[in-house]
């Protein structure tokens, strides 16, 4: 089947996982390759098999080159230990219905699928470029859609797990779309995340060199008092290519001076620290 047909079939079988982002009503039918709600709002499946559910253009600072570099870096295994830890918190990975919030170019869901995540998976991002890359490289791993967390197009009590990896949160929305007992698994960088790169780029600027995740972690724990907090630290060896991809994909380079960037290019790091906090909480039954 063509990708547009596969995408349409997915929607036919899983309309309950979605809602109209305009009126919040249920999608009642599939009309050709379009999904339609009771109020007549219509959204078309693209030729790539994806669905665009933004009500207006989304704003995202990641361009195609940055997203491609992130995929290349992910392909080296850069995030694998982190994702192994995330996978360990997913109940029944062989059948769980999973929503990846801010999925980017799809590398995380791809790796988790290879690891054994076999249930129904949806990845969404506000970036159309990201979703096009995800569908182009990992079409079979998940259903990919362009959507905005602030105007969520997903159904109530629909998902067993939400993955929230290095992306914004909307806890009221998470609570709405999770099944009772479903899990939120959030990953945030901590103070040592990419510390070598931050020291290289911002040697004289402590405001940009230092990072504190306490506000994000405290907010999560306020929402979910029974949350589990897990710290993960590991070192990734870099060669010239992977260091270049890291520099191209990280927002850390955006505010660096020309002199700092030139120095970084002339003195590529040989390794870097990945240090994150993994937060896990369950929706009450």
TrEMBL record:
23S rRNA (guanine(745)-N(1))-methyltransferase N-terminal domain ranges (all copies): 18-54
Q: Where does S-adenosyl-L-methionine bind?
A: 79, 105-106, 193
Residues at which Zn(2+) binds: 20, 23, 37, 41
Sorted alphabetically, the Gene Ontology BP terms of this entry are: methylation
Q: Which residue range or ranges hold the Methyltransferase domain?
A: 96-208
**Keyword flag ATP-binding:** no
Q: Which domain of life is it from?
A: Bacteria
**Its Gene Ontology molecular function terms?**
metal ion binding; methyltransferase activity
Q: Which UniProt keywords apply?
A: Metal-binding, Methyltransferase, S-adenosyl-L-methionine, Transferase, Zinc
Among InterPro entries, the record links this protein to: Methyltranfer_dom, RlmA_N, rRNA_m1G-MeTrfase_A_prd, SAM-dependent_MTases_sf
Kindly name one Pfam family recorded for this protein.
Answer: Methyltransf_31
- Tell me if GTP-binding is a UniProt keyword of this record: no
> What PANTHER family does UniProt report for this protein, alphabetically?
METHYLTRANSFERASE, UBIQUINONE BIOSYNTHESIS O-METHYLTRANSFERASE, MITOCHONDRIAL
> What name does UniProt use for this protein?
23S rRNA (Guanine745-N1)-methyltransferase
């Amino acid at each position: 089947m063509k990708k547009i047909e596969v995408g349409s079939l997915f929607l036919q079988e899983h309309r309950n996982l979605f809602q109209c982002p305009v009126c919040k009503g249920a999608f009642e039918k599939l009309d050709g390759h379009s999904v339609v709600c009771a109020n007549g709002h219509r959204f078309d499946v693209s030729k790539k098999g994806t669905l665009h559910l933004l009500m207006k253009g989304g704003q995202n600072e990641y361009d195609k080159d940055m997203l491609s570099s992130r995929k290349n870096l992910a392909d080296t295994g850069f995030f694998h230990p982190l994702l192994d830890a995330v996978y360990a918190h997913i109940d029944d990975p062989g059948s769980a219905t999973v929503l990846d919030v801010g999925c980017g170019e799809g590398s995380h869901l791809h790796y988790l699928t290879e690891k054994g995540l076999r249930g129904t998976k949806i990845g969404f991002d506000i970036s159309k470029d990201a979703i096009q890359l995800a569908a182009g490289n990992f079409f079979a791993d998940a259903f990919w859609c362009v959507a905005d967390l602030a105007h969520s197009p997903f159904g109530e009590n629909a998902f067993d797990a939400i993955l929230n990896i290095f992306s914004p949160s909307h806890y009221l929305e998470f609570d709405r779309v999770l099944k009772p007992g479903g899990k939120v698994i959030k990953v945030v960088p901590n103070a040592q995340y990419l510390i070598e790169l931050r020291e290289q780029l911002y040697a004289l600027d402590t405001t940009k060199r230092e990072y504190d995740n306490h506000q994000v972690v405290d907010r999560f724990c306020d929402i979910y008092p029974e949350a589990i907090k897990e710290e993960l630290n590991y070192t990734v060896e870099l060669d010239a290519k992977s260091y270049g991809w890291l520099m191209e994909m990280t927002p850390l380079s955006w505010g660096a001076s020309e002199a700092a960037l030139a120095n970084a290019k002339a003195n590529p790091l040989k390794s870097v620290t990945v240090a994150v906090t993994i937060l896990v909480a369950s929706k009450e039954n």
